[in-house]
Design a protein that fits this description.
8 helices; transmembrane; transmembrane helix
């Protein structure tokens, strides 16, 4: 589900909860909303409000951690691919085929969206990595220097493959939807009590709508950052582009 859609649904849900509170307020007897009743409602909703704030803070921290980890993974993958290319360049022209394969693979992207899905006649990413490793194993070193470079290239290619599978697995995590659903229900309860206690004038209604929009915006950011390779808030591909510019050089 898209992040904008999630944020829009949350805003709609909170607006409906506020409207329900306003409708119920108009139909309740006056003594149900006297000063003592409102104090009791505020005390009860303070508990829910505290829990909601804690849960929202945890979700924001989790989404930020996911985004930061994805950014580190992107930089690490680009650096390792570039290192692999330089090691193979030092080995000699025997590695030209493998170097061309890496450059072609990197130009297609190195994200969760292009990991294992074949594109036209192109192989999935993991097959490209394995093809490079197969080429490296088939090399016949002529001296100790080339043996050392072959071993180093195989080591780095193994780290690239490991990064790939970590990316595949982390890309399937996403948001804890059950946790998010419970949080939205708590927030809806809070906004319903806001409508229950608020006077029906344009100023109060505008403020409540702005608050609902702010909360929906926070949920949107959480959802978008939990999927760091797509959406409006996504990891920059600058390291990838920088690596592509350096690949294939002698």
């Amino acid at each position: 589900m898209g992040s904008l859609l999630v944020g829009g649904l949350v805003f709609l849900f909170l607006s409906m909860a506020t409207s329900i509170g306003l409708i119920v307020r108009a139909r309740l007897p006056d003594h149900h909303l006297n000063a003592e009743s409102k104090d009791a409602i505020r005390l009860a909703t303070a508990v829910v409000g505290t829990l909601s704030a804690l849960a929202l803070g945890l979700l924001i921290a989790s989404a930020k951690s996911t985004y930061d980890n994805a950014e580190v993974e992107m930089r690490t993958a680009a650096a390792r691919v570039l290192l692999l290319d330089r090691v193979m360049a030092q080995y000699g022209p025997e590695t030209d085929k493998a170097r061309e394969l890496i450059e072609k693979r990197l130009s297609r992207g190195w994200t969760a969206e292009t990991t294992d899905e074949p594109s036209a006649k192109a192989l999935g990413e993991y097959q490209d990595i394995e093809a490079v490793q197969a080429d490296l194993r088939s090399l016949t070193p002529k001296d100790a220097v080339q043996r050392s470079l072959q071993a180093r290239a195989l080591e780095v290619s193994g780290m690239v493959a490991e990064t790939h599978w970590l990316l595949v697995e982390s890309g399937k995590e996403g948001l804890p939807w059950a946790f998010l659903t419970v949080l939205v229900c708590w927030l809806a309860l809070l906004f319903a009590t806001f409508g229950l206690q608020a006077p029906t004038n344009p100023t109060v209604l505008s403020i409540l709508l702005v608050c609902a929009l702010s909360v929906a915006g926070a949920i949107f950011l959480i959802s978008d950052m939990a999927n760091p390779y797509v959406g409006l808030v996504h990891v920059s591909d600058a390291p990838l582009q920088s690596a592509i510019e350096r690949l294939g050089k002698p």
